[in-house]
Amino acid sequence: MKYIKKKFSIEGISAQKLAKKFGTPIYCYSYKRLKENIDNFKSSFKSFAPLICFAIKANPNVSLIRDIKKLGLGADVVSMGEMMKAIKAGVNPKKIVFSGVGKTENEIKYAIDKKILLINAESKNEIITIEKIAKSKKKIVNIGIRLNPNTDAKTLNQISTGKKENKFGVNEKTFIELIRYSKNSNNINLKCLSVHIGSQILNYRPYIKMLRVIDKILKKTNHKFEFIDLGGGMGIPYKDNSKKLNFNKYNIAIKKFLKNNKFKIIFEPGRCIVGNTGVLISKIIYIKEAGKKKFIILDTGMNDFIRPALYNANHKILPAIKTNRISKKTYEFVGPICESTDKFSTLKKFQKLNEKDIIIICDVGAYGMSLSSNYNVRAKPIEILIKNSKINIIKKRQKLKDLI
Predict the structure, then answer these.
(1) CATH number (domain holding residue 198)
(2) Is the same domain home to 269 and 395?
(3) For position 373, what pLDDT does the model report?
(4) What pTM does this model have?
């Protein structure tokens, strides 16, 4: 994704051309970037060959999941719907891990019937439910227990999952009690210790702290786990001056951890696989004067892309065609939704814009379309994938008549 002759292009195809052909808004993904991300992730941790399970919640498009599966990844799912999508995309059930704090009986039954690799349980009540269903089906079910390591990843409070006040996992005392409980069961097989400390993590140090906590607890349990599921949470730089997560430092820490412990490592990356693969292409409907600033009113809003409204997240905004003319006024990029939080960014010294110009919102591949809605009864955008300079429609634009 770069400018070619001053035109923003995805794998050689200009955003302007895409907007003209398909209308706006458009979610557009780059296969080349997707493959680069997966290859980089694999090579960063190749010394211990982890099982990499893509977090479907980051982007549940079946076509993308199919490509991700072909590149060798499994799936981390948090609902029956995500599991069904993963299986439809051809993911091997033995590479599917089922996470989440609120699994229903129907979801657990479905997971058992599909013979997935692991159900990562998050409470004693959940283990009792799994055990009851397994007994009724006369099966032995492989489970993991999610430990809450009380590790602060120091990202946004809204996406923290590893602190003691978060709803996820169990504390050390309960974890050890659940190991004892599992050993006495005829229908569950405890195979995995699971952790996940948060999202959008750019510093490797919280991961090292997490590994120390796991190591300490393993020494107390005397249970032979087959898998250690380290979750995901690996972030991407949304700002030009943000640092990338140092995979090498994390890799060294895991290798050190594995010297004393012989486990198969599972990762559940989402954002770092798809985050920077996608852009949201939008058109300016109106430019509205407001004192010292101008509202740039786009035809895409928080219904299509809610991260800025939900998390105050920062996403780069770029013009589809570069010029050298700079606006003297501040631009506030907003959507058409009837909410004051429906805004994307406030920028100074942006290039001069006109109504009907095309705008690019960057790095929307993760938690973009997956968090979209039909709020204000608006149809969801088209999704396209540029693969080997060919345009593939991977989800059609919703039609209003289907919503009404």
Answers:
(1) 3.20.20.10
(2) no
(3) 97
(4) 0.93
